[in-house]
Amino acid sequence: MRFIILGAGAIGCYVGGRLAVAGQNVTLVGRPRVIEHLAVNGLTVSDLDGFKAHLEASTLQLALSLGEALGAKSGPQESGGALIILLCVKGGASESAAREIAQACPSGTTVVSLQNGVDNVGRIATHASHMKVLAGMVPYNVVMANPTHVHRATTGSLAMARSTVSEQMVPAFNAAGLPLELVDDMRAVQWGKLLLNLNNPVNALSDLPLLAQLQDRDLRGVLADLQNEALVVLAAAGIKPAKVAAVSPHALPQLLRLPNWIFKRLAARMLRIDATARSSMADDVRAGRVTEVDDLCGAVVRLARASGSSAPMNQAMCHLVAAHRPGHAMSGQDIRQAMKHRALKSL
Known about the structure:
Elements: E1 2-6, H1 10-21, E2 25-29, H2 32-41, E3 43-47, E4 52-55, E5 61-63, H3 66-71, E6 83-87, H4 94-104, E7 110-113, H5 120-127, E8 132-137, E9 142-146, E10 149-152, E11 158-161, H6 164-175, E12 180-183, H7 186-197, H8 199-206, H9 210-214, H10 217-236, H11 252-256, H12 260-266, H13 280-287, H14 293-306, H15 312-323, H16 332-345
Parallel strand pairs: 1-2, 1-6, 2-5, 3-10, 6-7, 7-8, 11-12
Antiparallel strand pairs: 3-4, 8-11, 9-10
Helix pairs in contact: 4-5, 8-10, 8-13, 8-15, 10-14, 10-16, 14-15, 15-16
């Protein structure tokens, strides 16, 4: 198999780096600012379980576009086998990435969406209709310790839609330290993950590391509010979210609302996070980039509208993140008050 990572950010470099360390044929496709650093300094991948490896720059296969990656020599590894595109761009870039895939890749190429949200497979299929598109799910947080060092800061196993190709991928991923579970109902898994990702905007507004934010009861309460609203919307739409975390989706908001001393005891696995880890949305807010809030809270709002209802808290969160200015940290009470004010304005 030949893997091309389209979107060599934190997730893309981690997954691609682990596969490359294990001897798989991997090409990283990313923006110039990323590729230039990797071309000089190589890539280091590590995790909170103690794994750490460095890939020298001379061993990396790097490209600035998919066309360039497909036109380059495959490197020292074997070039035979299926071509697999692992799509790791943010949701807002899915359509442009899909058009690039449609133009550059042979018909029938497998494209795996390793992205947040529930809408990306449809976007890819619309603009790259001749490809085999599979849904994937990345459960863990990956941070860029520096431009050439990616670090997995939380735990979990990758999930992917079951197919003939994904079944062939399991041994390679497992051997690379990327445990991969194949799933028949990825839609349920994606919604289960989205419920967890509703913490991303809370984390971004708080401007705290994930661990510190989850230890704040008021901030957890905001997440519980967003999740409860989403669960009502999902029930109305007849969608049963899968259990992605150690706790079932319906029990999670109750757990989040518990006093700190009880929460810390019962949620020890959830709190197994590097102390410096932040959500990617927090990084985007700090850098003034467009965030994925529309792929998360916005997806809840769209599903609610499709069912003839509304999701005022998730809609308010979309507006808060879009209007938020870097450096203006918000407490849980600040966020709740702002969400209530925004929800009232929309009535």
